[in-house]
Amino acid sequence: MRARLLALVLLLLLAGCSSGGTRDDGRITLRFQSLAWQEESVEASKALVKEWNATHPDVRVEYVQGSWDSVHDQLLTAFEGGEAPDIIHDASDDLADFAYGGYLADLTDLLPARLKSDIPRRSWETTTFGDGVYGVPFLQEPRVLIANAKWLRRSGVRIPTPEKPWSWAEFRRITERLSGQGKYGIAWPLKEPVSATLNLSLSAGGQLFHRGADGKVTVRFGTADQVVPRTVHEQVGTDRSASPTTLGSGGSDTLSGFFGGRYAMVPLGFSYRQQIVQQAPKGFDWQVLPAPAGAGGLTQGVSPQTLSVAEDCPHKKEAAAFIDFLLRPPNMVRLALGDWMLPTGTQALADPALRTAEHGWATGTALAGHLRPAPAQTVRGYPEWKDKVATPALQEYYSGAIGLGALRERLEEDGNLVLARYQR
Q1: What is the rounded CA–CA span in Å between residue 223 and residue 230?
Q2: Quick one: which of 263, 261, 260, 259 has its CA closest to 247?
Q3: pTM: predicted TM-score of the whole model, two decimal places
């Protein structure tokens, strides 16, 4: 009797540790960890899970709420403990170490041709590591300028469009023109400065990470890579056209000053429009402008949101089928609208709901074709390089504590030492 009881306890413990499996009635259960956080996005994701379950009685999906704040560490702990969810929502710049570490399933032969052809090759590059595909990129957002439309009209400056954007030099002159009497032409929220700096630098022809014939990556902070950080540095320290107090702020932290007429423009991710719609004072007139362009045109780096399957998932085929369902064009549109972002799929991107002038949707979709993989997408060791080297170095440079030469030395010399440990 005691032996049978111990066996039953052990069986229950093992079942509790499983990320998914088959029940006694033969029905498969898959756990889907979603990082949706905005109310509309959570509702859309839960509704699609419910619709799947209603039409797939033999494969039930359980919705699990995750958080962007701690996703990397949480997933690493789950992978190492054998408790990872079957279907994983993440971002492409977080996948490299998980893919190379054997934690994610190669989806190359699991995804249908429809989905493969609908998403452009440039997007697939963000989730391709070696010879395998370890995630499906499905949502992305450009960085845009959110502007006080009345302020810009009153100043008489040229209003940029995706067809005729500002250059980085013109952008600097205009922010200086918009400033004065305690007000600033721009507020840079750079609490986390690395992705903003690197992704916008592609517009100036920057690259930063260079992969050699041996496959190893080195950091070279060249002239093109310096255009964006130097512009910000001079706006803050020389022109006094950028607020110095927002450099340590997150994007949301700048909105009260923006609404209060302290800043003419704020560079933000496209999805911040939802917060602006919800929080802006009645009658506040704002508009979406493209980010400045340089030698690389309107090109920007992006790290799309992704859906992956855990290598330990016992039902990979069914998990891939759920991802295919979730990302059918009409469903991808629902997810994009819920997150106020752009879909990667070409059919979804053509939907009229995403091309209206209201809230700047049309400006965003016009930028979609210029989005490219973020420079660090396939760089092993990038999270450590970002946290230990690039973030503190850029923060010190933007605040004026170090000069451009010291920034270059830190990014290259210290950065290459970090990356070398991951490429032996």
Answers
A1: 10
A2: 263
A3: 0.89
**Tokens read off for 321:** 């089928």
One-letter identity of residue 182: G
Residues in the chain: 424
List Cα–Cα distances, 211 to 40, 126, 220, 375, 410, in angstroms.
Answer: 40, 15, 11, 11, 19
Question: pLDDT tens digits for the chain (424 residues)?
Answer: 444 444 433 333 333 334 455 554 678 999 999 999 888 999 999 999 999 999 999 999 999 999 998 899 999 999 999 999 999 999 998 998 899 999 999 999 999 999 999 999 999 999 999 899 999 999 999 999 999 999 999 999 999 999 999 999 999 999 999 999 999 999 999 999 999 999 999 999 999 999 998 889 999 999 999 999 999 999 999 999 999 999 999 999 999 999 999 999 999 999 999 999 999 999 999 999 999 999 999 999 999 999 999 999 999 999 999 999 999 999 999 999 999 999 999 999 999 999 999 999 999 999 999 999 998 877 888 888 999 999 999 999 999 999 999 999 999 999 999 999 988 6
* Helix (H), strand (E) at residue 89: strand 87-91
